[in-house]
From TrEMBL:
Keywords: Hydrolase, Metal-binding, Zinc. InterPro entries: A_deaminase_dom (IPR001365), Ado/ade_deaminase (IPR006330), Metal_Hydrolase (IPR032466). Its EC number is 3.5.4.4. One of its GO terms (molecular function) is metal ion binding. Pfam families: A_deaminase (PF00962). The lineage of its organism: Eukaryota, Amoebozoa, Evosea, Eumycetozoa, Dictyostelia. One of its GO terms (biological process) is hypoxanthine salvage. This is adenosine deaminase. GO terms for cellular component: cytosol.
C-alpha cells in the first residue's frame, strides 16, 4: 500500500467510490470491523518491502516507493489474475526470514487498527516461505510471534489461517493441514485451500480434509472465484464452514438456498474480484442478491496492498454500488464478527461490542436509527441486544460494560403453570412411540381376537387383562433395555393398518396441541408399518394426507422426518429410504433420519456413503443418532455424514473442544429425560448434561422421542429438567426457543416460527407478570 506522512494507507479505489456514500470514510474508519479474508503476502507495506530488501541484500525492480508501487499495486491497470499474481513474486522474496515474517504480520495488524478493524484472520501458506531453508515449524513460530506481539501491543484480536494450495501435491496440503492442527493453541484458527480452481478440485486434497474433519478444525475454502458453482459445492462437501469469494454461487439457486439454510458465510472481495476481471463492474457482484435472500456475506480485502484498498473503503464501495442503508451496514458488520473462527464466548462479546459501539457512533453523528430499530428482532435473536433498551441507556451509563444486558436481573420462579402456558416445538416425536396409552389400549381391544395381528406381538396379549396391566408393561418404572424393546414392539404392532395409522396420527397431534405445541416434526419409518398388508408407499401417503389434514386446521405446523434404522436397515435399504424422502420434499418431508439402539461407527460409516452423498447433492437435512457411548461416531456423523442435527450425543460433554466446536457452529443436539440419558451420563454428579451443554452454547433441543414409554408428559418432563439443571428464566426461554430456531424448515419458515414464538411468549410472560426485557422482544 502507498503511505502518506502519518503512515495511513491511501485507498485510491475507495476515495473515488465514496463520493456517493452516505457514510464518509472518516466515520467508516471509526466503526468496529472484522476482516476475515486477507492474505499476509498481499498486505505488506511498500516501504517495508524496500526496507526488508535492503536489509537482506535482495534485488528489486526499484527501491523508489513510487516506482516499485507500479510493480506491486494493481489498482489501475490490472489485466487479469495472472498479472495480479505477479506482484507476489516481489512480496514473497522479502518474507523468507523469521524476523521479516513476524514484522509483516505485526504491521498488517497495525494498519488494520488504524482502519478500525478490531478482529482479523490473516491467512498465509507456510510452504511459500521456505525458499531459503526455513522449516514449516520455523515459519509458523515466526508468524505466531507476530500475532502475539500484535495482540500485546495493539487493540486487536488476531488469528491465523493456514492455506493449502490446490495446484501442489495433496501430500503437501496434508502436511499443511497437520501443522494447522499442531499450532491451534498458538493462534491458528483454521485451514484454507487457495489457488486455481479449474483442474484442481477440492476433492483431490482428501487427506487434508480428513484431518480437518477428524480434528474439528475450522475451514474456509477459496471457491467460485474463477470457476463454476460446482467448485463451491465440492468445497462444502469437503467440510468448508465459509466460502472465499463465492461469485459462482449465484449460478445455482439450490446451492444458495442450502448455504442460506445452513448459514454458511460468503467472504466477498469486491475490488479484488473486479481487478482480476472476475467482474466487469462492481454492480455485477452478487453480494446484494445474496444479502437480500438472507445469506451471510462479509466484506473483505483479500490483498489490500495489490488492490490498494482498506476495509473501510470496501464498505464505501458496497454502500455506493449496492445501496446498503445504515441498518444493512450494521448487519454487514455483525455478519463478519458472527462468521469469525474464534471461540464462542469471545465471538459473542465481540459481536455485542461491535453492535453497541456502531450504534453509539451513528447516534453521535446524527444518523436516523429507525431502520435499526425496525430490525430489532434480528439483533436480539442473534446477539441478545435489545436495541430500544440500549438506546434508552446509551447516554446514561457506560454501556460498553453492559454488553446489551438488562440493568435489572430477572428472578422470577419457573412454575409448572408457566411451562404449560409457554409455546412449544417438538423436533422428534417418534410415530410408533408417541401414541397415547389410552389409544393403544383401545386399538388392542379392536384386534385382540384377530389371529394375524396377535402373531405380531412378542408376548401373549391375553395377559393384558386390564389397562393397568398394559400400562405396567409399557411404562415400566424400572425399564431395562429388554423391557423397552418389548414395549416398542407392542406399540408398533398396533400401527399396522390404515385405520390404526390414522387414529395414531390424530392422537399424537391432539396431544401436542393440548401441550401447546405449535410445531412438531414426526419421525416415522414406513417399513415398520408393513407387517400386515400395507406397502411403504401406502404408509407414506397415509401419513402425508394426515399431516396435510391437520395443517389445514391452522392449529399446528407439521414437518415429517422419514428415517432408517441403524440396526435393521442395511446400506441398500437406507439409500432407498433416502431417495423416497428426497422425492417427497414437496409433500412435507423436511429431513431424513438414522436412528437406532446402536450408532453407525466411524469404521462402518463408509458403507453408507452413497446415502450421505445423495443427501448432500440434494442439500437435504439429516439428523442422526450418534455419540451414545463413544465420541468417534459424533465426529464422523458431523463431518462424513453431514448431519445438521445430532440426536443423543451423550458423550459430547466429555470432550470440551468438540463441545465448543458444536456450540460455535450451532449444531443442535436432540435430547430428552430418558433412561438412556441417565445411564450414559451418570458421571455428571454436580450438574446435568443438559445444563453442561447449555453453558457451552450448544443449542439443546428437548424432544419427546418415544413419550409413551414414560408416565410424564411434555410439561412434567420440562419441569423436571428445569429443577435438575437449576435453570433460570433466561435459560428456560432459550430452551423453549431453540426448536423454533433450529427445525428443518427453510429459513423463511423458521423466521415465521420464531416470530410466532416471540409473540406468544411475550403474552405468556405478561400474563405471569414477568418482564420480557432481556428475555424476548417482538
Amino acid at each position: 500500500m502507498i503511505e502518506i506522512e502519518n503512515n495511513e494507507p491511501v485507498n485510491l479505489t475507495a476515495t473515488t467510490a465514496s463520493k456517493g456514500s452516505f457514510l464518509p470514510l472518516d466515520i467508516l474508519r471509526k466503526l468496529p470491523k472484522a476482516e476475515l479474508h486477507q492474505h499476509l503476502d498481499g498486505s505488506i507495506n511498500v516501504s517495508t518491502i524496500i526496507e526488508l530488501a535492503k536489509e537482506q541484500n535482495i534485488e528489486l525492480p526499484s527501491y523508489d516507493p513510487e516506482v516499485l508501487s507500479t510493480y506491486v499495486l494493481k489498482d489501475k491497470d490490472c489485466n487479469g489474475l495472472v498479472h495480479f499474481l505477479e506482484a507476489f513474486s516481489i512480496t514473497l522474496k522479502v518474507m523468507q526470514k523469521p524476523y521479516a515474517i513476524t514484522r509483516v504480520f505485526y504491521e498488517v495488524c497495525e494498519n488494520l487498527v488504524k482502519d478500525g478493524v478490531s478482529y482479523v484472520e490473516i491467512r498465509f501458506s507456510p510452504i511459500l516461505h521456505v525458499e531459503q531453508g526455513l522449516s514449516l515449524s520455523e515459519v509458523m513460530n515466526a508468524v505466531c510471534d507476530g500475532l502475539a506481539l500484535a495482540e500485546f501491543k495493539l487493540p486487536i484480536k488476531a488469528r491465523i489461517i493456514v492455506c493449502g494450495l490446490r495446484h501442489l501435491s495433496p501430500n503437501v496440503t496434508k502436511d499443511l493441514a497437520e501443522i494447522a492442527w499442531r499450532y491451534r493453541h498458538k493462534g491458528v484458527a483454521g485451514f484454507d485451500l487457495a489457488g486455481p480452481e479449474d483442474g484442481f478440485s477440492s476433492k483431490y486434497h482428501k487427506q487434508a480434509f480428513d484431518i480437518v474433519r477428524d480434528k474439528a478444525l475450522n475451514c474456509t475454502i477459496h471457491s467460485g472465484e474463477d470457476s463454476n458453482y460446482m467448485s463451491v459445492f465440492d468445497s462444502i462437501i469437503c467440510g468448508a464452514h465459509r466460502i472465499g469469494h463465492g461469485i459462482a454461487v449465484q449460478q445455482n439457486q439450490d446451492l444458495l438456498n442450502h448455504m442460506i439454510n445452513r448459514r454458511i458465510p460468503i467472504e466477498c472481495c469486491l475490488t479484488s474480484n473486479l481487478q482480476i476481471k472476475a467482474l466487469k463492474h462492481y454492480k455485477d457482484h452478487p453480494i446484494r442478491k445474496y444479502f437480500d435472500q438472507n445469506a451471510i456475506v462479509t466484506l473483505c480485502c483479500d490483498n489490500p496492498t495489490m488492490s490498494n484498498i482498506t476495509l473501510s473503503g470496501e464498505f464505501s464501495v458496497a454502500i455506493e454500488n449496492f445501496d446498503f442503508n445504515i441498518e444493512e451496514v450494521l448487519r454487514l458488520i455483525d455478519y463478519s464478527f458472527a462468521s469469525a473462527f474464534i471461540e464462542a464466548p469471545m465471538k459473542s462479546t465481540l459481536r455485542k461490542e461491535a453492535v453497541i459501539k456502531s450504534i453509539r457512533i451513528f447516534k453521535e453523528h446524527g444518523y436516523d436509527l429507525d431502520p435499526i430499530v425496525k430490525n430489532k428482532n434480528y439483533y436480539f435473536h442473534e446477539t441478545g441486544i435489545d436495541i430500544i433498551h440500549e438506546l434508552s441507556v446509551i447516554e446514561k451509563i457506560n454501556s460498553q460494560f453492559t454488553l446489551g444486558k438488562c440493568l435489572s436481573p430477572i428472578h422470577s420462579p419457573v412454575t409448572m403453570e408457566f411451562l404449560k402456558a409457554m409455546p412449544k416445538a417438538d423436533l422428534q416425536s417418534r410415530f410408533d412411540g408417541s401414541v397415547s396409552l389410552s389409544t393403544c389400549w383401545n386399538e388392542l381391544q379392536l384386534i385382540k381376537d384377530d389371529k394375524d395381528f396377535k402373531k405380531l406381538f412378542p408376548i401373549n396379549i391375553d395377559t393384558f387383562t386390564s389397562f393397568d396391566k398394559f400400562r405396567e408393561t409399557i411404562q415400566n418404572p424400572n425399564h431395562s433395555t429388554g423391557s423397552i424393546a418389548l414395549s416398542k414392539d407392542i406399540m408398533n404392532a398396533l400401527l399396522q393398518n390404515e385405520g390404526q395409522l390414522e387414529r395414531g396420527f390424530d392422537d399424537i397431534i391432539k396431544t401436542a396441541i393440548d401441550d401447546n405445541v405449535k410445531y412438531i416434526e414426526i419421525a416415522f419409518r414406513p417399513t415398520s408399518h408393513t407387517k400386515i398388508n400395507l406397502t411403504k408407499e401406502q404408509v407414506l401417503n397415509i401419513i402425508i394426507e394426515k399431516k396435510n389434514e391437520w395443517e389445514n386446521t391452522g392449529k399446528i405446523k407439521i414437518g415429517l422426518i422419514l428415517f432408517s434404522s441403524s440396526v435393521s436397515d442395511d446400506p441398500i435399504e437406507c439409500l432407498s429410504n433416502a431417495k423416497v424422502a428426497i422425492q417427497n420434499k414437496s409433500n412435507g418431508i423436511v429431513g431424513f433420519g438414522i436412528f437406532g439402539t446402536e450408532t453407525i461407527s466411524p469404521s462402518e460409516i463408509k458403507h453408507f456413503s452413497q446415502t450421505f452423498d445423495l443427501l448432500k447433492r440434494h442439500h437435504f437435512n439429516l439428523v442422526q443418532n450418534s455419540g451414545t457411548s463413544d465420541i468417534g461416531s459424533l465426529v464422523s456423523t458431523i463431518h462424513q455424514a453431514g448431519a445438521a442435527r445430532l440426536s443423543g450425543a451423550f458423550q459430547l460433554h466429555k470432550y470440551p473442544r468438540l463441545m465448543s466446536y458444536v456450540g460455535n457452529y450451532r449444531i443442535p443436539v436432540e435430547i430428552s429425560l430418558t433412561k438412556k440419558l441417565k445411564s450414559f451420563t451418570k458421571d455428571l454428579s454436580f450438574t446435568t448434561p443438559i445444563r453442561h451443554l447449555l453453558d457451552n452454547n450448544v443449542p439443546v433441543i428437548i424432544c419427546s422421542f418415544r413419550s409413551s414409554l414414560y408416565s410424564f408428559g411434555r410439561t412434567e418432563m420440562l419441569y423436571e429438567i428445569v429443577k435438575n439443571a437449576q435453570l433460570d428464566l433466561e435459560h428456560v426461554v432459550r430452551l423453549f426457543k431453540n426448536p423454533f430456531s433450529f427445525n428443518f424448515q427453510n429459513l423463511q419458515e423458521r423466521t415465521k416460527l420464531v416470530n410466532l414464538f416471540n409473540e406468544t411468549s411475550i403474552q405468556v410472560l405478561q400474563n405471569h407478570k414477568i418482564t420480557s426485557q432481556n428475555l424476548i422482544i417482538n
